């Protein structure tokens, strides 16, 4: 009985220690975001989440009013189409970074956060559709916030209903997974979608 009781106490202490560490780590994020805002109150770049040519078109118009800012588009429209949209808006190729590494919204952030840090970018405009913004903010808070990068949301108006809280909580959890493990769960998510597709064909 004493051995069992000792093991239970040790297990409880370990759980408490891990929980405390997680709470403290996540609790630091708002502080890091506040510091980034104070050090860099004006955004240094435009960061657009891919999801159809309307986002590039909006970004091109938005960039016209911010001529000194670089533009980063994560897994958006095909590069040839996106480049044409920006050129027609008078945006030079030198300002544009079309990154194709992301496979979903979580990896939109995790695939570029190191690039922003290496360029000392501490504050970005976060551009996406209005229905998608809540999920983007949830992920950005963990991924960008944990790395000391602030963001200013810029919503693209649409007529689509907001995404469900299930989608938001799922990707918020994946962002936390990335924070502690460096993994996003994207490969598992892709496998689930493939399996679901195979079943629908049976």
TrEMBL record:
Organism encoding this protein: Funiculus sociatus GB2-A5
Protein name as it appears in the record: YdcF family protein
CDD domains the record matches: YdcF-like (cd06259)
Residues covered by the DUF218 domain: 44-164
InterPro entries for the chain: Cell_Envelope_Assoc, DUF218, Rossmann-like_a/b/a_fold
PANTHER family: DUF218 DOMAIN-CONTAINING PROTEIN (PTHR30336:SF20), INNER MEMBRANE PROTEIN, PROBABLE PERMEASE (PTHR30336)
Domain of life: Bacteria
Membrane-spanning parts: none
Coiled coil regions, renumbered to chain: none
């Amino acid at each position: 009985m004493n051995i069992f009781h000792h093991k239970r106490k040790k297990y409880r202490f370990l759980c408490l220690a891990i929980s405390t560490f997680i709470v403290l780590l996540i609790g630091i994020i708002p502080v890091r975001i506040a510091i980034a805002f104070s050090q860099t109150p004006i955004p240094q770049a435009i960061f657009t989440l891919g999801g159809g040519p309307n986002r590039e078109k909006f970004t091109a118009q938005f960039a016209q009013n911010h001529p000194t800012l670089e533009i980063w588009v994560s897994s958006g429209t095909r590069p040839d189409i996106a480049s044409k949209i920006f050129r027609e808006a008078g945006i030079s190729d030198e300002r544009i970074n079309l990154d194709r590494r992301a496979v979903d919204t979580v990896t939109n952030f995790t695939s570029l956060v190191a690039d922003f840090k290496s360029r000392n970018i501490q504050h970005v405009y976060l551009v996406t559709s209005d229905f998608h913004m809540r999920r983007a903010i949830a992920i950005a808070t963990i991924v960008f916030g944990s790395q000391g990068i602030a963001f200013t949301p810029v919503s693209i108006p649409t007529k689509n209903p907001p995404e469900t809280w299930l989608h938001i909580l799922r990707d918020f959890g994946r962002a936390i997974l990335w924070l502690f493990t460096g993994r996003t769960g994207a490969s598992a998510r892709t496998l689930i979608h493939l399996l679901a597709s195979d079943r629908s064909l049976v």
